[in-house]
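User: Teach me something about this protein's shape.
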Amino acid sequence: MAGSWRITLVAPPGTVPDGIRHVSVALSGRGLTYPWRFDDRPLRAAVRATLRAEGAARALVFPGAEALWFGAADLPPAVMDMIDCNPLEFWRGALRGRGLRARLGSLAEIPVAARCARRTVRSFAATVCAGERDAAWMRRLGGRDTVHVVPNGVALPPEAALAAEDAAPTVVFLGSLGYAPNVDAALFAAEAIWPRVAAAVPEARLVIAGRAPVPEVAALAARPGIAVAADVPDIVPVLSRAWVSIAPMRIGVGIKNKVLEAWACARPVVMTPLATNGLVLPPGHEALVRRDAAGLAEAVVGLLRDQGARRAAGAAARALVRERFGWAGAAGRIDALLRAAR
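Assistant: First, the predicted structure itself:
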């Protein structure tokens, strides 16, 4: 989008692509993508100062900043890239979170998240979600048909960057390992799925890879056949050495980038129905979507035992990513919504 727009990013410190001006603003809180959880006054001040200095024809707003547009008629027309539906996230957490305290915490967040979602839909020219389930909830809460689905994209690694499969049958789970839905999925994989896989394929190993694992996830490395790879600098070698990837998600919302990243590396993914939100399954992948631990383990074992099937599934997945999940397509749809915003 930087090729057709002059972009100024007002955001916390971080790496910014070339060609984008960055106005850095320090924020603190326990969840900067939830506007009711942190003091947004520094962000409001930085946005206002930037608009006074530079002006803006349109704004693309990311989670955590949506409240700046509530009742603010003097701000430029904007598109809200909501990505996920927070009330749906907390609803699922209340139903299936790990432990009573986590479930009650999610339940307490639902009313404020629902009010925020309603105001969001009514404050922006368009709201974007990555998956249809999230979008449907946002439409119902907001009472508007201005919520659109734009799936996330993923970079397609060159063929030369893809490593050969490890000698040992390897299954990988990838994700931010401090995020509650990923913590739940990692523990579910280790406790309920992996014992079934290991019983059928004793030489198999499970690699749980991702950023900042919480102690209970890090502790899984003490279990036989399980390794935890924390803060890996490049996920492509980890994924491409795996035979199979898994996404046993039970809570959470949005499109699962972990699935797209594995597909981009030509690795089949065994997943729950929740993990399919916002995705189109590659041909022949319907049998890899299972609802319980026994079914997930059965699908994993089947792929570990059949090299031809997993390679064919991986090739189909990579072809689908190339065709439908590039960033250029997502950027084009966002660009069109911005130009239509009034």
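Now, about its shape. The domain at 159-324 is CATH 3.40.50.2000 (Rossmann fold). The chain has two domains: 8-153+327-340, 159-324. If you'd like, I can walk through any region in more detail.
User: That's plenty for now, thanks!
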